[in-house]
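Subject: mismatched residue count in predicted assembly?

I count 567 residues in my input, but I want to confirm that the predicted structure covers every chain. Input:
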Amino acid sequence: MKRSWSMILVVAVPYLWLAAFFLVPFLIVLKISLSQTALAQPPYLPVLDLAAGWRGLRGFVTALSLEGYALLFSDPLYLFSYLKSLAIGAGATAILLLLGFPLAYALARTPQPAQGVLLVLVVLPFWTSFLIRIYAWMNILQRDGLLNGALQALGVVDAPIPWLATDAAVMIGLVYSYLPFMVLPLYASLQKMDTALLEAAADLGAPAWKTFWLVTVPLARPGIVAGSLLCFIPIVGEFVIPDLLGGSQSLMIGQTLWIEFFGNKDWPVASALAVALLAVLLVPIVLYQRQQMRALEGGR
Amino acid sequence: MQGRLTRVNLAALAIGLAFLYLPIAILVIYSFNDSRLVGVWGGWSLRWYRDLLGNQAMLDAAWASLRVAVLSASIATVLGTLAALALVRAGRFAGRTAFVAMIYAPLVMPEVITGLSLLLLFVAINIDRGFWTVVIAHATLTLCFVTVVVQARLLDFDRSLEEAATDLGCPPWRVFMTITLPLIAPAVVAAWMLAFTLSLDDLVIASFTSGPGATTLPIRIYSEVRLGVKPEINAVCTIMIAVVASVLIVASLLSKLTVASRTQRSA
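Triage response: the counts match. Full output below for your records.
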């Protein structure tokens, strides 16, 4: 196909926009993570002085330091924060998979037109604000909230349980917010499944659990992988949910970064935290990208 | 895959939907609670909605959020549609892998990283943070969602009409305006709405990129919610849910109408 001018523009405009507002900012984060904190505006040194030419550039490079990263490794607080985020991310993803799979499966089995209606119902909460959905749980989980009220009325507990500011509350909030992100990819791959395969397995005498494990799960694999990555990656860097529902004793990495930046005004350390977080998430992000690429090329 | 639902299937659907909707239903009901204590039901009342009308800071934040959402969604829809065309129609071009990576990475990138990096960009090029920096940040984030939605439509698309027009000597931009765009219009509208709600929803990126005088509604709500549950906030949230729900209903009715009129015309 001949490259027309219009096609070049179609590629160039979004390309340049993303390069300017997505790629370049990362390079800046990388640069500032190698800087030192300073009592100045902006609060870091060195500042690249392009007007000074080569001399300025050399001075700039020699002034870069690994101090921000050294701090990350010397203080166990940061390491603990990363480990906690990864653990919460893995735990929440596992629970999401366990809850999401039966829901997606039932959805895929529902006959039309009911299936379309149910699908809309599952996606609809995604359209209401994230913040609102977390706030809704604050209503339920607080000390004199509805959960404690119900438990006490049923006689399950005598005194109200402090649900808020616990990791359990964070888990509930995460699972609640990310459920549609898990259900949709699972539904997409289950819906394409041929029931004849299940019938064949049953006819040949396979017990239900074996059919599930040897037929359904392998066929749903793309959905399982996509849904898990789609949940795990953002959950590890989550800020709002642990901040509103979690306690202040042990922080997730998103909260630590937020506090370093807004509270301590330590931009180099906040940048180093961001770079390290990205490094931790690089493998799952690349996996996710490859999966999306395959879906894109396969769709033609 | 469709078939008879077992009892387990029905239970999964019922529990799943209850889990998704109960918290929102409780929030809405308690916004009409007359009592200031959230755990105590004091009878039906509209007092928190009345209080809201007098809360100028909240109204200003809502107005700022709406303007940011409309502007950023419009920019994102134009850029995202172009990006989808580039992915599906441009074939191989230099740097395509990097382009695809930049489209898909923001979908899963933790918001704290995106927010921090955009803020540092604005500081580095010496732009004062405010209304427009939030618009740019939201447009960048949401354009990727637009691309995914529009690209899906472009992939299952009969190109024979476009080819016929090109063979008859129609210039490319006119083919796009008169044939391609009307055919992908439902996806473009859906993508705009997705971008609009994502922008209206965002707290983290807006917190990093906004400045004085550009407080959006989520930033405002967040600063109040941190101090605990308040009935006024339940009222704000209920109004936001109502707005989003009515936009969705109107949009689905509109798309039904277009489909109906088109089938009528072709019949």
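Chain B is about 75% helix and 0% strand. Marking this ticket as 'not a bug'.
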